Amino acid sequence: MAASREARVPDIGGYDDVPVIEVLVAVGDTVAKDQxxxxxxxxxxxxxVPAPFAGVVRxxxxxxxxxxxxxxxxxxxxxxxxxxxxxxxxxxxxxxxxRAEPExxxxxxxxxxxxxxxxxADVPVQPDRIAQASIDKxxxxxxxxxxxxxxxxDADAVLPGKVAYASPAVRLFARELGVDLARVxxxxxxxxxxxxxxxQFVKAAMSGGAPSAGGGxxxxxxxxxIDFARFxxxxxxxxxxxxxxxxxxxxxxxxxxxxxxxxxxxxxxGLEALRVQLxxxxxxxxxxxxxxxxxxxxxxxxxxxxxxxxxxxxNASLDADGAHLVLKQYFHIGFAADTPNGLVVxxxxxxxxxxxxxxxxxxADLAARARDGKLGPADMQGGCFTISSLGGIGGTAFTPIVNxxxxxxxxxxxxxxxxxxxxxxxxxxLLLPLSLSYDHRVIDGAAAxxxxxxxxxLLGDLRRALL
Length: 467
Known about the structure:
Layout lengths: L4 E4 L9 E6 L6 E2 L4 E6 L4 E5 L4 E6 L6 E2 L4 E7 L50 H17 L21 H10 L17 H12 L34 H16 L2 E9 L1 H13 L1 H5 L8 H15 L5 E3 L6 E3 L5 E3 L1 E3 L2 E3 L2 E2 L7 H16 L13 E5 L18 E5 L3 E6 L4 E14 L5 H16 L7
């Protein structure tokens, strides 16, 4: 049995009498070289004392609350067979350098996202920078790795003075459980978070007493409070009920869904000519209220259904667990309707079973009821895909917000005549701007580009929908 050797506190940047806040090993534990033995905490940084060699811990010389300085003995470790020779082992003059230099401590790199410790042994750092490296690297990077973008939006959260007050071992423990330390209250001196605090937070979350670690708490900066009347006359007006409800939904959707928007143009020259011709043919019926005036929205709905049938991932919803995609076998299309009280989204049900004339009549009826405030909850539920058309107002492109739990929304701007090269000359063509926003967790860019390109082809010639 090899004789036990002392594991001492290395150069810790001039700090003296630094308290031990956590003992990371116990007698009998097998440790690897550079594995943390205890955690020290000064008034400016938290640092671990690493094992200078691999072996078995035979005796601990410190306990919680003890204060240590450079050179203090932390533990007695029995080296493993492949451990390095003792520091005081004799070497021949030919093997020894002219002047023995103390081995530079190795910088401890933050744990990886999988929770595996990464401890490169060949990255020396200056001893007087250990304290700064501990907080700049371990604390900041560990906090960033443990925190999802949805949980921490403010930039201050990753600055050294703003990170959660916890040792590296507690950070690793919290990361393994998926806990955001910024949301855990520390029970020790100065608000330091312990392992027990993390465990208590998890217990409270599981019992419904605290928000879960993956619940999407934003921890946003507080809304600025400004007395606008100081700068000039103001008028205060309460938001409408629709604005309050839709505002909360839009904020959630924008924050929780990774949006990407794909833009394209559809040549609707022929489609617009057909629409005008059909309306002229049905002018008498429309005047008598028997038929409905065909709008571009009706054609957009019909073309969107055909595109959804070809690309079923767009006619789906991500389940609440985020691990399953619900593919829908029905085609209910919502459309944004502008009302005096704000936007609402009525739904045309089973649009795949209806013709353009029937869709036009139904959308006109739903829009009228929306303006009169007569839509019922059932009129706005069950949508698979939404169309937001601003063509009657203007604009060239925009980024519509996905209407959760849907995975895509089509934005339509104002059509305009533009010169298009046909191979021999420029021809005037009526181009309709399309803006498809989609949930990037479900749909990738290539699929979105194919969907919009196919939709543009359908609008260019709806006969393609019959193929």
